[in-house]
């Protein structure tokens, strides 16, 4: 396994010719989020590495997962007759999720702003995004929970695969076309999830 050549010399040479190309037609991204991210990236110091932004955003999602895993380890907390997640947890979860989403949106802009864009940076970014799919979906499951009023674990499994398949399909399309067409569902899910967690705080009182 350690002696296997995962990347050939020819593939490594292709890194020098690689150029990032993406298309985002989502109105929410174009008219709301990108202008917001453009404003945020201007206040970041130029010495701040884009990969650090990527990693910090990912770790916020991991922290979200760990926090809700502690307060809702069996996904029954939202069900009737169980001890609900404290109100402040939902507020923190929404804040961490939106902050992670923002960092994921500005890391590429910071890279282009500081002339530090690279194929390895994109690989690092999207590699962590693939893992974030798992943490994000499982964390969102705490909103609905299990039981009669919630959704089944099998449904969670299917949702997880839908998210992962969308992610893989987008990158497979990019592999063949050279252009990453960003799915609309990503931005919509991030914003709506952040908003959903706020009113649910009232249910835990």
UniProtKB/TrEMBL annotation:
GO terms for cellular component: endoplasmic reticulum membrane; Golgi apparatus. The keyword Nuclease does not apply. One of its GO terms (molecular function) is ethanolaminephosphotransferase activity. It is a multi-pass membrane protein. Coiled coil: none annotated. PROSITE patterns: CDP_ALCOHOL_P_TRANSF. Its main location: endoplasmic reticulum. GO terms for biological process: phosphatidylethanolamine biosynthetic process. It is found in: Endoplasmic reticulum membrane. Its EC number is 2.7.8.1. Its cofactor is Mn(2+); Mg(2+). Pathway: Lipid metabolism; Phospholipid metabolism; phosphatidylethanolamine biosynthesis; phosphatidylethanolamine from ethanolamine: step 3/3. Pfam families: CDP-OH_P_transf. InterPro entries: CDP-OH_P_trans, CDP-OH_PTrfase_TM_dom, CDP_ALCOHOL_P_TRANSF_CS, CHOPT. Gene3D superfamilies: 1.20.120.1760. It catalyses: CDP-ethanolamine + a 1,2-diacyl-sn-glycerol = a 1,2-diacyl-sn-glycero-3-phosphoethanolamine + CMP + H(+); 1-O-alkyl-2-acyl-sn-glycerol + CDP-ethanolamine = a 1-O-alkyl-2-acyl-sn-glycero-3-phosphoethanolamine + CMP + H(+). The chain crosses the membrane at residues 52-73, 85-103, 123-144, 150-169. Keywords: Acetylation, Endoplasmic reticulum, Lipid biosynthesis, Lipid metabolism, Magnesium, Manganese, Membrane, Metal-binding, Phospholipid biosynthesis, Phospholipid metabolism, Transferase, Transmembrane, Transmembrane helix. Belongs to the CDP-alcohol phosphatidyltransferase class-I family. Ethanolaminephosphotransferase that catalyzes the transfer of phosphoethanolamine (PE) from CDP-ethanolamine to lipid acceptors, the final step in the synthesis of PE via the 'Kennedy' pathway. PE is the second most abundant phospholipid of membranes in mammals and is involved in various membrane-related cellular processes. The enzyme is critical for the synthesis of several PE species and also catalyzes the synthesis of plasmanyl-PE, a lipid required for proper myelination and neurodevelopment, from 1-alkyl-2-acylglycerol. This is Ethanolaminephosphotransferase 1. The gene is SELENO.
């Amino acid at each position: 396994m350690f002696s296997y050549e995962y990347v050939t010399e020819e593939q490594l040479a292709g890194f020098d010719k690689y150029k990032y190309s993406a298309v985002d037609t989502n109105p929410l991204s174009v008219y709301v989020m990108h202008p917001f991210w453009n404003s945020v990236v201007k206040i970041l110091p130029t010495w701040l590495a884009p990969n650090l932004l990527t990693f910090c955003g990912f770790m916020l999602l991991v922290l979200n997962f760990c926090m809700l895993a502690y307060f809702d380890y069996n996904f029954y907390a939202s069900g009737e007759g169980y001890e609900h997640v404290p109100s402040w947890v939902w507020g923190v979860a929404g804040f961490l999720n939106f902050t992670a989403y923002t960092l994921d949106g500005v890391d590429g802009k910071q890279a282009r702003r500081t002339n530090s864009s690279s194929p390895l940076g994109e690989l690092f970014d999207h590699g962590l995004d693939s893992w974030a799919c798992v943490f994000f979906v499982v964390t969102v499951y705490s909103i609905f929970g299990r039981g009669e009023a919630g959704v089944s674990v099998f449904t969670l499994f299917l949702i997880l695969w839908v998210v992962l398949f969308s992610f893989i399909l987008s990158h497979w399309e990019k592999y063949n076309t050279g252009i990453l067409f960003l799915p609309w569902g990503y931005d919509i899910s991030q914003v709506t999830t952040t908003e959903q967690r706020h009113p649910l705080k009232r249910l835990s009182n």
